[in-house]
Design goal:
Shape: globular
CATH class of the largest domain: Mainly Beta
Number of strands: 38
Strand content: over 45%
CATH architecture of the largest domain: 5 Propeller
Distance between the termini: 37 Å
Low-confidence stretches: 14-20
Number of helices: 2
Length: 521
């Protein structure tokens, strides 16, 4: 009898613990690739910008009312320009580059985003008075100021930029370029000093002002240790600055701090989390002797005294039936193109209820093929699936669903002569290898990829179905790997390219994304 009572007490305790966990926010705040965050609060609403590199539209703007649950509401730009690298033409690409760390600010009724791009060698500043629905006005100028933090101070505007040796550069009044004769000087000679010796010098600057003092946050990577948060403090923007380590040995770094309307403080940072990418964390903080103290006893807690996390669907990723009502955008904001798209070669209206991807050139390599439409993968597990009509593919065409990174995986249909085949390709060895090919005698086929990021398993599995009910594994599992060649977490992608006879097209009936998979460990 006592044993039964003890078991019941234990079960009740477990249920209470689970219930308390379910009602609180937990880290990571977003289990998906949302790196280099910059954040502001305007009234009761938070806005965050992030990095999506070579994807377009670029610099996603996300909104939250609770610091935990976010939705994409805008992008700072549609394209950066028309260089060959940006558009995947003439054999050139923008992989691993594009626009990097941004800085979002609110000043005198206007919203600003500053970023830079190594590809173009330029710095960009975007502004709008309507961050959610407005268009952004773009200013661009040289040089590209690395990891620049936009600063408004005493009716002047500056950028803090650099790695290790940080500089401050004054902008002209309309923020369209560097101010002639303005401030242009070293701000901190060696911002990496608190963590030397380093593999990565202090970068990712984000400035915050509180109670009359300036706080500059940076990320560094000490040799033999994990990514680390450094903070410098000064009474004057131009110094002198004193620095210290704010959070270490947690692998959670790069960002700044944010306060809530009721007076609580948090740091927003990211963690390198394998193939899914760099994922956001919130870390409670407090003020001691005029310094921000991050963490709970120096640690990043699993749970937070904030509202519970909801699904990333539909705010960050979402299903799409490709049906559009009058006045609706052609593509929801969850979608991004791999590089600049050729807008003449895709449509959601030519065949209502379908995404049509057309070909107009020859591509012999998957990663050089244009008009690939992508969404993030997410953890701990997820799947992406589609129904593909291949009746209008031509000899030499390849169309289907991918797990996109440098070491990609594909499941799709290829046409060889008058015959069609379901195939699976792996680029795990950095040499695209077809692992299986099966004859296909029908024009519609269901495709699915399942991703497992639990405990950094980082494995993708590939499936096809002839009826949408019975799924068949094809090829082999892909051990996903985060590489600097692409510098982003894995994405699902819909693709169609021609290796022989351009002019065909593929019709995708839908894209469905889920937080469940069928394959267990």
């Amino acid at each position: 009898m006592r044993r039964n009572i003890s078991l019941a007490v234990l079960l009740m305790a477990l249920l209470m613990t689970f219930s308390a966990y379910a009602q609180k926010a937990h880290n990571p705040i977003v289990f998906a690739d949302v790196p280099d965050m910059s954040m502001i609060r305007v009234g009761n609403t938070y806005y965050m910008s992030s990095t999506t590199m070579h994807m377009n539209p670029g610099v996603p703007i996300m909104k939250s009312t609770d610091l935990v649950n976010w939705e994409i509401v805008n992008y700072a730009y549609q394209t950066l320009g028309e260089m060959d690298e940006l558009s995947l033409i003439n054999g050139k690409s923008n992989y691993g580059r594009g626009s990097w760390a941004s800085s979002i600010r609110y000043h005198n009724g206007m919203y600003y985003v500053a970023t830079f791009a190594q590809t173009t060698g330029k710095t960009y500043i975007f502004k709008t008075n309507d961050i959610e629905k407005g268009k952004w006005q773009k200013s661009e100028f040289k040089p590209a100021f690395h990891d620049c933090s936009l600063v408004f101070d005493n009716n002047r505007a500056f950028l803090i930029t650099g790695g290790g040796r940080l500089q401050i550069v004054e902008l002209n009044d309309d923020l369209t370029g560097v101010k002639e004769g303005g401030i242009n000087q070293v701000l901190i000679e060696n911002a990496s000093a608190p963590t030397e010796p380093n593999m990565l010098k202090a970068e990712g600057s984000q400035l915050f002002k509180h109670d009359g003092k300036y706080y500059l946050f940076n990320i560094s990577w000490p040799r033999g240790k994990m990514r680390t948060v450094i903070v410098h403090r000064a009474d004057n923007l131009f110094g002198p600055w004193e620095g210290r380590i704010a959070l270490q040995d947690q692998g959670v770094a790069q960002g700044s701090i944010i306060d809530t309307p009721d007076g609580r403080w948090f740091a927003y940072l990211f963690q390198d989390h394998g193939a899914v990418g760099r994922i956001p964390f919130l870390v409670p903080m407090k003020w001691e002797d005029g310094w921000p103290v991050l963490g709970v006893n120096g640690k990043v807690p699993e749970t937070l005294d904030l509202p519970a996390n909801k699904s990333l669907i539909p705010g960050i990723v979402n299903n799409d039936e490709f049906t559009r009502k009058k006045g609706e955008p052609a593509l929801p904001l969850v979608w991004q193109w791999n590089h600049n798209p050729d807008n003449k070669l895709w449509s959601v209206t030519e065949r209502p209820g379908h995404l049509r991807l057309k070909t107009a050139r020859i591509d012999t390599l998957f990663l050089k093929s244009r008009n690939m439409l992508t969404q993030r993968t997410f953890g701990p597990v997820c799947s992406g699936s589609t129904l593909l009509d291949v009746s209008k593919l031509r000899d030499g065409d390849f169309a289907g669903l991918c797990a996109l990174q440098h070491k990609f995986g594909l499941v799709g249909v290829k046409v060889v002569g008058n015959s069609k085949y379901v195939y699976m390709v792996s680029n795990k060895t950095e040499k695209p290898t077809e692992l299986q090919s099966i004859p296909l005698s029908q024009n519609k086929i269901y495709l699915k990829i399942e991703c497992d990021f639990r405990d950094r398993t980082d494995v993708a599995n590939f499936f096809y179905s002839l009826d949408g009910k019975k799924w068949n594994a094809i090829g082999a599992s892909l051990k996903m790997e985060y590489t600097l060649q692409h510098f982003m977490g894995y994405r699902f992608g819909l693709y169609n390219y021609s290796s022989k006879n351009p002019g065909g097209y593929a019709d995708f009936d839908y894209f469905h994304i889920s937080d469940k998979i069928s394959v267990n460990k």
